[in-house]
């Protein structure tokens, strides 16, 4: 089982010709609302890409909070429809998290109102993980309180679970987080904030990866947007994976798709290399950037296969 602990947001995406200047009001060309939030997007990516395993049961459980409001109920319905188990999603007396996503052809800027996401508690984690075992995986991001993420990583480690952290949005992490992280997946901004190294070229990227290893992380993936990713596994085998060339429509949830796809394929490492898992994640993320929206832009396994003739046994 994969547990995703994190945010669930109502995304309001505005299509703009350009970003507004200071003090300026501009008219959007389009507006969409949909299921978002880094946690929810990663859970959806796992569920949609998991279909090939034909396990007949839900592979992913979401742990999080939405408001006791119509939007919150709708987001839960959407998660259920996408085959994310919502047993551990609670509706609470706060507003549902909201993200305003400003999109231009080449850029996205996101403002998040955390709302209900900030109420996720230790007892939510305890309840959700009470039947977890060492063969399960925990995935976290940083859109819920940091100390809850730290608590969950520690607890997962004590159970023997595999842990994945997407340290987004960018914030400094306490040093004692790192030994409890098996796989870290930061983007360029997050890498710079966490390591103090700007990952602008191959040497600096590998220096940043080494820094994560030194702090205790086993697998590192620096995602580099249209430049792909720089990765390193437990044996310190480094590789660069170029992004796939696609027509970019909306990059929202590219990183979330990557994290979800990697998490799903990770248990099969042993049969496959970490690099192969990242190649699959790169293909899945490229489909996400070629479509509009957050969770609704995430492909299924069959869509990834159809586009790339990808075979994973
Ligand atoms: P977001 O916050 O938009 O979800 P992120 O900043 O967390 O994304 P990125 O590094 O931008 O993550 O992207 C994650 C992965 O998605 C990249 O490693 C790459 O494989 C793929 N990707 C991102 N942008 C593009 C692009 N323009 N073309 C093709 N693939 C892309
Ligand atoms: O990673 C993309 C997500 O970040 C959006 O769906 C938005 O809700 C913000 O949390």
What is this structure, in a nutshell?
The chain is an alpha/beta fold.
What does this structure look like?
The chain is of the alpha/beta class and 313 residues long. It has one domain (2-7, 36-96, 117-308): 3-Layer(aba) Sandwich (UDP-N-acetylmuramoyl-L-alanine:D-glutamate ligase). Helix content is 33%, strand content 22%. The chain is built from nine helices and 13 strands. A nine-stranded mixed β-sheet has the order 5-4-1-8-9-10-11-12-13, with helices on both faces. The chain has a four-stranded mixed β-sheet with strand order 3-2-6-7. It is globular and about 50 Å long. The two termini are 19 Å apart. The structure holds adenosine-5'-triphosphate and alpha-D-ribofuranose. Alpha-D-ribofuranose binds at residues 7, 9, 11, 36-38, 41, 99, 110, 112, 143, 252-253, 255-256, 294.
Strand order of the largest sheet: 5-4-1-8-9-10-11-12-13
Number of helices: 9
Helix content: 25-40%
- The CATH first-level class comes to Alpha Beta
Instruction: Return the CATH architecture.
Output: 3-Layer(aba) Sandwich
* Helix and strand composition category: alpha/beta
Structural domains: how many: 1
What is the H-and-E element order? EEEHEHEEEHEHEEHHEEEHHH
Write the CATH homologous superfamily: Ribokinase
Distance between the termini: 19 Å
Largest sheet data: 9 strands, mixed
CATH topology: UDP-N-acetylmuramoyl-L-alanine:D-glutamate ligase
Instruction: Pick out the low-confidence regions.
Output: none
Molecular shape: globular
What is the strand content?
15-25%
**What's the Cα radius of gyration?**
18 Å
Bound molecules: adenosine-5'-triphosphate, alpha-D-ribofuranose
Average pLDDT number: 93
């Amino acid at each position: 089982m994969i547990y995703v602990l994190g945010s669930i947001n109502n995304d309001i995406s505005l299509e703009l010709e350009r970003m507004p200047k200071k003090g300026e009001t501009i008219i959007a060309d389009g507006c969409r609302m949909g299921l978002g939030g880094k946690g929810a997007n990663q859970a959806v990516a796992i569920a949609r890409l998991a279909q090939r395993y034909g396990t007949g049961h839900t592979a992913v459980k979401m742990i999080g909070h939405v408001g006791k409001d119509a939007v919150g109920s709708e987001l839960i319905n959407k998660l259920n429809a996408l085959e994310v188990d919502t047993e551990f999603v609670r509706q609470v007396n706060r507003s549902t998290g909201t993200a305003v996503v400003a999109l231009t052809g080449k850029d996205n800027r996101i403002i998040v109102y955390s709302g209900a996401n900030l109420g996720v508690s230790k007892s939510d984690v305890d309840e959700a993980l009470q039947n977890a075992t060492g063969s399960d995986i925990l995935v976290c991001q940083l859109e819920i309180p940091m100390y809850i993420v730290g608590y969950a990583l520690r607890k997962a480690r004590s159970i023997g679970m595999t842990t994945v952290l997407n340290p987004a949005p960018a914030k400094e992490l306490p040093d004692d987080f790192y030994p409890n992280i098996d796989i870290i997946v930061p983007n360029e901004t997050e890498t710079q904030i966490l390591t103090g190294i700007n990952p602008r070229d191959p040497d600096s990227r590998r220096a940043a990866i080494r820094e994560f290893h030194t702090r205790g992380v086993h697998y590192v993936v620096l995602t580099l947007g249209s430049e792909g990713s720089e990765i390193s596994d437990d044996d310190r085998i480094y590789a660069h994976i170029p992004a796939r060339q696609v027509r970019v429509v909306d990059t929202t949830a590219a990183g979330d798709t990557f994290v979800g796809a990697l998490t799903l394929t990770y248990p099969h490492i042993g049969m496959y290399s970490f690099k192969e898992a990242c190649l699959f994640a790169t293909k899945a993320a490229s489909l996400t950037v070629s479509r509009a929206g957050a969770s609704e832009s995430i492909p299924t396994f069959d869509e990834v296969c159809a586009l790339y003739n990808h075979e994973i046994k």
